[in-house]
Amino acid sequence: MNAKVPMTLSLNSISLMSEVCETIAPTWPLDRWIAVNPWWGLRHLRAVDAAEKVARDAGVDVLMPFHFYRTAWEGGRIREGDLRAALAEQDHSTTVGSLIASLDQVDPITSQAISATEHLPSTKGRSPAIELIQEQIGRACASYFDQRQARWNRQSQDHGLYAHWRDLVARDPMIWRNTGIPRPEQLEGHLPQSWEESAVWAAEGLDFSESEFRALAQRHLYGLIGWASWCRGVDWREMLEGRDSSTCCELLTIFLVWERWATEALPVEGKAELQRARKRHRDQAAGPDPYRWIWQRAYELAWTRSLEQKLKAAANLNTGRMTPAVQAVFCIDVRSEVIRRHLENGRPGIQTLGFAGFFGIPVTHKKPGPGDEEPRLPGLLAPRYRFNETIGTNEENLQLNRRLDQREMNRETVRRAKYSSLSTFTLVETTGLAWAWKLVRDSLNRNGSRSKPDQGEAHGRLHHVHGGDPVGDLERVDLAENLLRGMSLTDHFASLLLFVGHGSHTDNNPNEAGLACGACGGKSGGVNARIAAELINDRAVRAGLVARGIQIPDFCHAVAAEHCTVTDRVRILDRHTVPDSHLIRLQELEEAFADAGNAARRERACALGLNGLSDDDLLKAVEKRTVNWAEVRPEWGLANNAAIIFAKRSRSRGTDLGGRCFLHDYDPDKDQDGKILAGLMTAPMVVANWINLQYFASVVSPEVYGAGNKLLHSVVGGNIGVIEGNGADLRIGLPIQSVHDGRHWRHEPVRLTVVIDAPEARIHQILNDHDDVAALVRNQWLWLYRLGDDGELVAVAEPGINTEAGQSPRKNRHQTLREGASLLAGFCRP
């Protein structure tokens, strides 16, 4: 649609705005942080086409510069065979010699859609108008969404983001003077009350085609990508609760209103220059960069080649079936691979398994006291159950809650005094000395180790979120069956079955939740592990499982544990509930964990700059990192993740995967109908893709998709997010300290390699049934392989195309959100 039809565009503007907003990925609060694929809204485009779109509209480059690939080539990271394989895979006529010569090219210059706000005459000594407008909108967002730190809330906050901004801009005399835009007379009556009316009003004043409108809207949202992503997250979470939300559209409306005001403020010659600039942008729009994409694919194939060699070596090891003495179920997290490997190497009688770290239990956790419930499940899901902790009788719970409520009231009193305009300075002057010892103690790291995220040993019972009724035995059997079948553990049970959640603790780190888990809202998995163990030990549940073909022997006892990923220490939870008959085996297991922890720490020591220390000194050093409030790199998190493997552990056991692989157990012989694999490909595979591409984006374009420098972070709204320095926009993604050590990248930007041990026909059937998952494969957002009998990796042919090539199917406002959430829902459904 290239013809200028402003009237039609204005009538269709709401629909177009919704579609543009859907290209922005959501974000979560700091305390519920999950890794997000920043291009999730573009998954129906080929990765190369999506990259071209964001480069053309928003000026964002999503590949590494040429010198990165030159270094990989000259250092042997990429071989000639990898280049030839990439060329053959892409069916490209370019020669290897031409590719090598391309390394001397200058990196392409990206452009972006042209806004009238950047063509306003600049005033000497002041920032460009577009920057001032972005800053004003950013401040409006910060004050609107801040429900914790702000002490003066405007009434307009009750009526939506647009109404709040409209109230602020009407009372801000400086924005008009600084931008040079004349203040509309009687602004309150000049601008429509609702965002929908304002969106139509703004579109009527913009002489745009549909494609130009999309490009400009995209450019504006990328101008405040952090707040745009936050607004999308608000819409997403409201949708999960069954409510409509248009917060991102309201944000875009604000930009469009400024765009119309700026257009009207331009002189005649300024408007003519604006049209010429837009024409130049259309004419100069560059296509995909074929050379760098081939180099990127060769870089990824080099990693896949090394992975295949390791899996082939593992195929030659003994894979005979035996009943182990201990079975330990870990989260699929890449950090678990390291300690699992060392645990198995030191104790051959231990079998480790991989399963999603929330153990298939979509639950919120409520601790005693006034705090909010904490979701302990992937952020794409709405919780179905609530786990309320109890320490004993109702009277004991009541007394504890009263004591904790009073303590929180006292703290809130101090907070109010601290932020009061009258007492801010007097409070600091009168109470400052009271904090002196704490500052000295923290500076000297004398506040003890706090590397155990879940200290409580309280118990509780599952209740339904809606209605509050206790979860009945039948539904508890469903949960247990899904858990066991999901990791193909239905026979050969060990006497000790351990569920190991994982968590991370660091001090003075707003991004702490990002280290705990990449998927489960930034929470540790100890609570879920305890619920899983309690389910498996329940006699009524075991009786129900027998009727479903799963018989857990009486000698099998389930135990929960938690793995601290900073220290690699594993702590047994509820140890006092373990029967005497299992204590010797439990002690042996604890010794095995201690040895595995030592080995895992030695493996990680070099990357942390701690190599050369003894085991005891190394343990003390990593424990110190958990409480050192000046430590910006307590651990490397999920950096360098590169693959996810769905197969029995015997297919990869005994080989060093370098902490780069998510490992989820799957036995194809126990899944003839493919239902289990469907759950894995629509849940853990999608989650791993989100984690992988967030790390990828934070490396290839850290200034847009990364969180910047930790040292300059300031927290916004208590837990909304962080800004860098005095910036106006939220920073999304990962801080530079999480992917770079100051000299080298610690994460290799490769798209996820997915390896599945299953017949190709079964894999194709699942792709045909789930278009969103098929789009990830078809459009090369990840690479899908089948694991052969000898460990070879066989590329799975692309699934059939169900939609028009390069086009995303038209959907209603929230259909895209619902599809994203439903991918994971089947993983928890009986």
TrEMBL record:
It is found in: Cell membrane. Its cofactor is Zn(2+). InterPro entries: DabA. This is Probable inorganic carbon transporter subunit DabA. GO terms for cellular component: plasma membrane. Residues 451-460 have a biased composition (Basic and acidic residues). It is a peripheral membrane protein. Forms a complex with DabB. It holds the Pfam family DabA. Residues 447-471 are annotated as: Disordered. Zn(2+) binds at C331, D333, H502, C517. It comes from Marinobacter santoriniensis NKSG1. PANTHER family: INORGANIC CARBON TRANSPORTER SUBUNIT DABA-RELATED (PTHR38344:SF1), UPF0753 PROTEIN AQ_863 (PTHR38344). GO terms for molecular function: zinc ion binding. Its main location: membrane.
